Amino acid sequence: MPYADIHTRSITERDAFWMEQAQAIDWVQPPSKALFDDHAPLYEWFVDGQVNTCYNALDRHVQAGRGDQVAVIHDSPVTDTRAKITYAEMRERVAKLAGALAAQGVGMGDRVVIYMPMVPEALVAMLACARIGAIHSVVFGGFASAELAKRIDDAKPCAIIAASCGIEPGRVVHYKPLLDGAIDMAAHKPDFCVIFQRPQERAALIPGRDHDWEAFQADAAPADCVPVPGNHPAYILYTSGTTGQPKGVVRATAGHLVALAWTMKNLYNVHPGEVFWTASDVGWVVGHSYICYGPLIHGATTIVFEGKPVGTPDAGTFWRVIEDYGVTSFFTAPTAFRAIKREDPKGELVREYDLSSLRALFMAGERADPDTIHWAQDKLGVPVIDHWWQTETGWAIAGNPMGLEPLPVKVGSPSVPMPGYDVQILDEAGHPLPAGELGAIAIRLPLPPGTLPTLWNAEARFRKSYLEHFPGYYETGDAGYLDEDGYVYIMARTDDVINVAGHRLSTGGMEEVLASHPDVGECAVIGVADPLKGQLPLGLLCLNKGVERDPAEVVAECVKLVRDRIGPVAAFRHAAVVDRLPKTRSGKILRATMVKIADGETPPVPATIDDPAILDEIAAALEPLGFAKGR
Ligand code: COA
Ligand code: AMP
Asked: Percent of the chain scored above 70 by pLDDT?
């Protein structure tokens, strides 16, 4: 069936469509229907089904005779190691860890925080939780202790599974001391921790609390898969909102399975047994869906890549991995390609490798700029498919269904809505806008399976953040338009979220940290354009009256403060001390105007501005930092 008919049917015959897709999953008890709408505008999917994610990701493939097929490849240029793990071996490892967790009393609904770098053990830990109905919450390694502590206090895990260390080019990330610091800071304490000791840095274990990964499971009896109801949370994944308190996106089990299974063939055009590679991190939603769950549910081979697009050891690493393992579909963030293009503009390293296995390149996580898409298309000679999604949705809202019906690529657009997504552009009053007009992008409820049913322990925040502004719709937080052919164009965020190297960050969260500096009276953080990372955070600081210190010293302390409190991933390096911030007469800081100034534009002076002279002061303060050029 062509894409257009499938999309229409997914909206007009919602239940029948998703019940058909649900057949790709092995159920312990099949659901009686797809959509449960009795609590609208809160919706749930496949609620009365009984199912297990780990069974669908591992056991069923072993039972079907795929036990010897490679499930997970670990390729780690930063530690110079490579390993392959078959489906049978993966099932054995996962069942053992699950058994050890169960023996400690971890069971259905208990939370387990996972804080690990790109090692296969991270997937083993995620799947072990899924096996026994525990709810995992993976925390990205680039966050500092304080961020980890916030997540511990919100999720209240009974256990934390961590690695001793991670490896970034040129430095070891001390996971275990960061974890210890977080547990000290958090009000909630886990019952125990399991530490995967890496040879690069072995961690000191705290007797009575910490277990060594190997010893912990040495004598464990393997655990069986525990059936869970369709709406049981598979995981919680925290993401940035407008404040420093991250939002705990809940992923319900059954919808997650059904939606990801649909995408593997229809969107990514991958067949069971083929190699699907996502170069991201298990700490992000892209890593959850397409390093761990999607490829395994589908019976494909996934790659856990512990390296960078450049510098590990060079800009040819991605091509080497594609050649070595015969990757058919490759997914990464545009920023990775910008990094490669900068190092190897002519694509000379591309020509050194055999990329004939590759059928398509997928990009997401941030806006894919046309230059980067053209470069990738030209050098790799395969379709480059932009697709748009969010932590909240767990899978693409818009994309190009390469395995169903490849549609013409329009550079600058992530193509068309995926099944179940009724994408609308709304004006401020919530009225749908015609093609070509810019507005807030919203999705008419219900969202399809696999998307968030709520926020962890925060239903009121869920309603307020996503459902209240436009009743009957989910508010994406992105602005853009639809063209005459129904292609979506994503132009900007409508909130204080910025996207730095494909990492989603809250400027509000950074402002909270800066405001805690004793000399800072008032501050603003804005996202400015950066040719490599897409956006970079830039701070503007007003010092308290009477502070006579060297502004450079305060800036350096503020940079350190953000790194210590939020983490290196915030990439906060630039700040300027200014006398005052531009505001409206009602006192609202004019952040969007400052963004334009920093990007070198000359924005119209807002009619509501308190004092227009401040705009020139801001430009003058930013120029020495290399911003606001060409005004
Ligand atoms: N653990 C600990 N620290 C991490 C980390 C991790 N998993 N990931 C990144 N960091 C650190 C980096 O080492 C860097 O630290 P530094 O300030 O000491 O140099 C800092 O966080 C900023 O990282 P990043 O913004 O990623 O910049 P970079 O200069 O290290 O690398 C790219 C630039 C483009 C190569 C890199 O951003 C990249 O590969 N991006 C791919 C994007 C991606 O995977 N996005 C996921 C969503 S799809
Ligand atoms: P995250 O939740 O970290 O995946 O970030 C989601 C946000 O990243 C979206 O709301 C968009 O602002 C942005 N984003 C993701 N994919 C794309 C894309 N293909 N084009 C433009 N922006 C994107």
From this structure: 100
